């Protein structure tokens, strides 16, 4: 390629696509899943992605640079009239492939079989602005993507999950991948909270959200993607109680969350550095990440901020007041609720633990309200009764005394059986209804006839 800068920029773009696939210890199933996701987002074929990987592993960064095509197609190879007809065919049905365009032109007798190569026609269509990618961009529904930025801190928060390194966290030291959950302020690019977690779980996302609120106040709005860790009923209830507007990005549009996506790219440099130290635990990894975040991002000048301020300075110097909540109200906002059926011993099983809720609700389905951060104490709600708190049941060496049966559940004292009395009364009624059977032999004998 003649333009060396353009070649390096294209190679750098390809390198960013391949970066998740180059992680050490990546299992084949996860690699296939990531390849399919990259192909879906970029429109590349899996064959092209494999070619990029092979070129990088054999030649390094240089292998990702596009190779020169030798000679350029001349006017004689692709006449103007033929190009105009190809453009007309593409405009009629934008989904037509280059091979289909050539086939139609051959069938119509405008070109001879084998006269034009697909690469030649594709290059000329791209130069004229009629490639399938160009037309797909205009055919997509919705508004055009534009840059946006809030004016003050805490007006909008963004969050995302990022694949992290592999750590020996499994049984017998098997390697397991960890994930980074991060919350970023839209106006100042300040990282409100970020930590590596062992699994992609909604409770860990909510925990990070809660810690960010405890440190920097309640945001006016939050902006998430459509991952199952964010699009939950619990998150909707949390934001409703906090008075925070809950927004979700359009599916398959990572550009709408550009700020947090850009930060994820910056984190790649940290992952490259920390891989040299090979941390063994999450605590060691998070300690290193906290130091790196403070020195290499939070206090570093940011080109997108006024006067190239650092995110820390921009957030601290903003005049917009922070809105905090008292601990009880905040804890109530993050409560979860689930239904459980009480067994015959007056207990429920919850999160692999036993809780004694009482004999008066045996066989009933109760509502369990709990704090995911502290499941040792639960609140039980049941219709017609005031909520009550229960703690995890401790099983001792001796059986406890069984509670006395409530008075309204005890046996009623009586001297007679209502069932037998009712049966006797019904039997007498049946006998009265049944008339004696008529015997004609008896009637004839009484009249003197035999």
What order do the helices and strands come in, and which of them pair?
Blueprint: H1 4-18, H2 28-42, H3 46-59, H4 80-92, H5 98-107, H6 118-128, H7 132-139, E1 157-167, E2 176-185, E3 191-197, H8 202-216, E4 221-224, H9 233-242, E5 245-248, H10 258-274, H11 282-298, H12 311-317, H13 327-333, E6 336-341, E7 347-350, E8 353-356, E9 365-371, E10 374-381, E11 388-391, H14 418-433, H15 440-446
Parallel strand pairs: 1-4, 4-5
Antiparallel strand pairs: 1-2, 2-3, 6-9, 7-8, 9-10, 10-11
Tag the structure with descriptive keywords.
4 domains, 15 helices, five-stranded mixed β-sheet, four-stranded antiparallel β-sheet, 40% helix, alpha+beta, 15% strand, 450 residues, Nucleotidyltransferase, domain 5
User: What structural class do the secondary elements suggest?
Assistant: alpha+beta
Terminal Cα span: 133 Å
What general form does the structure show?
A: extended
User: How are strands sequenced across the largest beta sheet?
Assistant: 3-2-1-4-5
Alpha-carbon Rg, integer: 37 Å
Helix and strand string, N-terminal first? HHHHHHHEEEHEHEHHHHEEEEEEHH
Strand content of the residues, in percent? 15-25%
Biggest beta sheet attributes: 5 strands, mixed
CATH homologous superfamily of the largest domain?
A: Ribonuclease H-like superfamily/Ribonuclease H
The CATH topology of the largest domain corresponds to Nucleotidyltransferase, domain 5
The domain count comes to: 4
Mean of all residue-level pLDDT scores? 84
Number of strands: 11
Uncertain spans = none
Number of helices: 15
- Look at the structure and give the CATH class of the largest domain: Alpha Beta
Annotated CATH architecture of the largest domain: 2-Layer Sandwich
Q: What is the share of helical residues?
A: 40-55%
């Amino acid at each position: 390629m003649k333009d060396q800068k353009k070649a390096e920029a294209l190679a750098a773009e390809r390198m960013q696509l391949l970066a998740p696939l180059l992680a050490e210890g990546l299992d084949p199933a996860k690699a296939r899943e990531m390849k399919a996701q990259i192909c879906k987002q970029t429109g590349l074929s899996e064959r092209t992605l494999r070619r990029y990987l092979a070129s990088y592993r054999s030649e390094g960064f240089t292998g990702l640079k596009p190779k020169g095509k030798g000679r350029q197609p001349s006017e004689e190879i692709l006449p103007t009239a033929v190009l105009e007809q190809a453009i007309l065919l593409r405009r009629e049905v934008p989904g037509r492939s280059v091979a289909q365009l050539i086939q139609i032109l051959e069938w119509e007798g405008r070109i001879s079989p084998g006269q034009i190569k697909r690469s030649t026609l594709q290059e000329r269509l791209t130069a004229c602005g009629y490639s399938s990618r160009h037309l797909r961009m205009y055919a997509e529904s919705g508004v055009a993507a534009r840059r946006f930025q809030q004016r003050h801190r805490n007006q909008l928060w963004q969050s995302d999950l990022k694949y992290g390194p592999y750590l020996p966290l499994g049984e017998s030291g098997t390697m397991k991948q960890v994930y980074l959950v991060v919350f970023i302020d839209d106006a100042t690019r300040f990282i409100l909270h970020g930590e590596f977690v062992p699994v992609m779980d909604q409770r860990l996302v909510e925990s990070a959200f809660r810690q960010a609120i405890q440190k920097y106040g309640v945001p006016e709005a939050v902006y998430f993607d459509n991952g199952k860790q964010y699009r939950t009923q619990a998150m909707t209830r949390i934001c409703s109680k906090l008075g925070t507007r809950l927004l979700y990005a359009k599916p398959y549009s990572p550009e709408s969350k550009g700020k947090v996506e850009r930060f994820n790219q910056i984190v790649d440099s940290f992952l490259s550095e920390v891989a040299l130290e090979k941390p063994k635990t999450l605590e060691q990894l998070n300690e290193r990440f906290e130091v790196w975040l403070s020195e290499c991002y939070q206090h570093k000048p940011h080109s997108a901020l006024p006067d190239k301020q650092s995110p820390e300075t921009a957030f601290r110097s903003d005049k917009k007041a922070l809105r905090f909540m008292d601990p009880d109200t905040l804890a109530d906002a993050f409560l979860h609720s689930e239904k459980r059926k009480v067994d015959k011993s007056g207990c429920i099983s919850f999160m692999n633990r036993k809780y004694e809720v009482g004999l008066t609700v045996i066989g009933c389905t109760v509502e369990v309200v709990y704090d995911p951060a502290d499941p040792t104490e639960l609140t039980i709600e049941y219709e017609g009764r005031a909520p009550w708190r229960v703690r995890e049941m401790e099983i001792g060496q001796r059986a406890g005394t069984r509670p006395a049966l409530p008075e309204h559940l005890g046996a009623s004292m009586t001297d007679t059986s209502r069932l037998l009395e009712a049966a006797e009364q019904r039997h007498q009624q049946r006998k009265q209804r049944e008339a004696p059977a008529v015997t004609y032999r008896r009637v004839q004998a009484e009249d003197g006839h035999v």
